[in-house]
TrEMBL record:
Species whose genome carries this gene: Thiolapillus brandeum
Name assigned to this protein: Protein-L-isoaspartate O-methyltransferase
Short name of any one Pfam family annotated for the protein: PCMT
Lineage: Bacteria, Pseudomonadati, Pseudomonadota, Gammaproteobacteria, Chromatiales
PROSITE patterns, per the entry: PCMT
Transmembrane segments annotated in the record for this chain: none
A cellular-component GO term for this protein: cytoplasm
Length: 211
């Protein structure tokens, strides 16, 4: 159920769907996704599907996690990354081996506490989880070399763009249910550029987000 073969099958599916970055595929093979869902759902952890994590939230589909990670990394070695929407902590755990340091923020305290326990269990010491409203980003540790948002705002949150280092990227879903797209935002000297990646389906980013 959580065997090597099941994980290998997932990695093969990710390849078939177009994930190319070998470092990302290797991390997807290694991170134990079954530890990020309820025991009752553990047998489905290596299916390429989103699963409920309680409080009306979901752990993202592995393909989307891989795709967003790949888009965030590009060809670079990133130093400090911010994630908005820790949820189960799975996306955070995938990022941790690939960058130097990950800050991650979540507004639902019990979800964050559970994610913290998972990071400790897996000895992921370069993850810094914070309980706060991610729409505000985390200005005290900015600028970031990358930002990944795993809940969807209606538009591009200006505060988050301002916390990117010039040249750095933010990967985020934008829009309401049924009409969401994954977008890559690159901070430029004058403002930012956007590129649409593909249609997605995330839970909404809640709180007072200024776009
Ligand atoms: N990356 C997660 C996906 C979780 S779903 C995973 O791999 O499991 C999105 C998460 O974003 C939810 O846990 C939700 O509570 C959180 N969220 C929504 N709005 C938020 C906000 N304004 N600030 C911080 N977290 C938020």
């Amino acid at each position: 159920m959580t065997s090597e073969r099941t994980r290998e099958r997932l990695v093969q599916q990710l390849r078939n769907e177009g994930v190319r970055n070998e470092r990302v595929l290797q991390v997807m093979r290694q991170v134990p996704r079954h530890l990020f869902v309820d025991e009752a759902l553990a047998s489905r952890a290596y299916e390429n599907t989103a699963l409920p994590i309680g409080r009306s939230q979901t752990i993202s589909q592995p393909y989307i996690v891989a795709r967003m990670t790949e888009a965030l990394l590009g060809d670079e070695q990133l130093d400090t990354v911010l994630e908005v929407g820790t949820g189960s902590g799975y996306q955070t755990a995938v990022l941790a081996p690939l960058v130097r340091r990950v800050y991650t923020v979540e507004r639902i305290a019990p979800l964050l506490d559970q994610a913290r326990r998972r990071f400790r269990l897996l000895k992921l010491r370069n993850i810094h989880p914070k309980h706060s409203d991610g729409g505000l980003g985390l200005p005290e540790f900015s600028p970031y070399d990358g930002i990944i948002v795993t809940a969807a705002p209606e538009g591009i949150p200006r505060t988050l763009v301002e916390q990117l280092r010039p040249g750095a990227r933010m990967i985020l879903p934008i829009g309401g249910a049924g009409a969401q797209a994954l977008v890559k935002v690159t901070r430029t000297a004058k403002g930012y550029e956007t590129e649409m990646l593909e249609p997605v389906n995330f839970v909404p980013l809640l709180g007072g987000v200024e776009t």
